[in-house]
Amino acid sequence: MAPQYKLSYFNVRGLAETARFLLSYMEVDFEDNRINKEQWAVLKATMPFGKMPVLEVDGKPLSQSVAICRYLGNLAGLAGEDLWENTQIDIMADTLTDVRLPISAFIWEPNEELRKSKKDTYIKETLPFYMKKLDAIVKENGGYLANKKLSWVDFLFASITEFLSYATDVPDATADYPNLHALKEKIFDLPQIKKWVENRPSTAF
């Protein structure tokens, strides 16, 4: 019998979207359990570490968004062939976390002037620093982030580009980086991902 998957997260793309991409890529049925604020107040205490996303596999919970992606990546045949290759994928996943985390410094900044300053610094300095290096890595890897082949971290990158557009008001953060842009388009052009994107709930981010 096929495993039963239930992915719980808020009604946004956020940290759960890569898992949704991977489950869609695997073409397996899964429950996309979207939690509202009222439900979360009750459910929070039942979640591992009081956070989401949480993926339940036959009722057994997995927490932490990147760990969930790594698990699904293995199931989908999108992991490395050995420890070295898996470490290369993990390096890219951790680097993408470094790209994403500074965004919270300006998104949640209550002072409008300071928020604008932090956002400008991120757009003009932090983001280009990472994008330039990642673009070169993708070029060296034949169009992928690691090991010269498609892996789960490429799906993570694609989902993060959507969040970058929302957070920075830059329509396409990959526009000036041809190798990253091609990789993003490659993921969104996959039939399974196209189908998911066309049918998923419409949310701001």
UniProtKB/TrEMBL annotation:
<dbReference type="GO" id="GO:0004364">
    <property type="term" value="F:glutathione transferase activity"/>
</dbReference>
<feature type="domain" description="GST C-terminal">
    <location>
        <begin position="82"/>
        <end position="205"/>
    </location>
</feature>
<dbReference type="InterPro" id="IPR040079">
    <property type="entry name" value="Glutathione_S-Trfase"/>
</dbReference>
<keyword id="KW-0808">Transferase</keyword>
<comment type="similarity">
    <text>Belongs to the GST superfamily. Sigma family.</text>
</comment>
<dbReference type="GO" id="GO:0004602">
    <property type="term" value="F:glutathione peroxidase activity"/>
</dbReference>
<dbReference type="InterPro" id="IPR004045">
    <property type="entry name" value="Glutathione_S-Trfase_N"/>
</dbReference>
<dbReference type="InterPro" id="IPR004046">
    <property type="entry name" value="GST_C"/>
</dbReference>
<dbReference type="GO" id="GO:0006749">
    <property type="term" value="P:glutathione metabolic process"/>
</dbReference>
<dbReference type="InterPro" id="IPR036282">
    <property type="entry name" value="Glutathione-S-Trfase_C_sf"/>
</dbReference>
<dbReference type="InterPro" id="IPR036249">
    <property type="entry name" value="Thioredoxin-like_sf"/>
</dbReference>
<dbReference type="Pfam" id="PF02798">
    <property type="entry name" value="GST_N"/>
</dbReference>
<dbReference type="Pfam" id="PF14497">
    <property type="entry name" value="GST_C_3"/>
</dbReference>
<feature type="domain" description="GST N-terminal">
    <location>
        <begin position="3"/>
        <end position="80"/>
    </location>
</feature>
<dbReference type="InterPro" id="IPR050213">
    <property type="entry name" value="GST_superfamily"/>
</dbReference>
<dbReference type="InterPro" id="IPR010987">
    <property type="entry name" value="Glutathione-S-Trfase_C-like"/>
</dbReference>
<protein>
    <recommendedName>
        <fullName>glutathione transferase</fullName>
        <ecNumber>2.5.1.18</ecNumber>
    </recommendedName>
</protein>
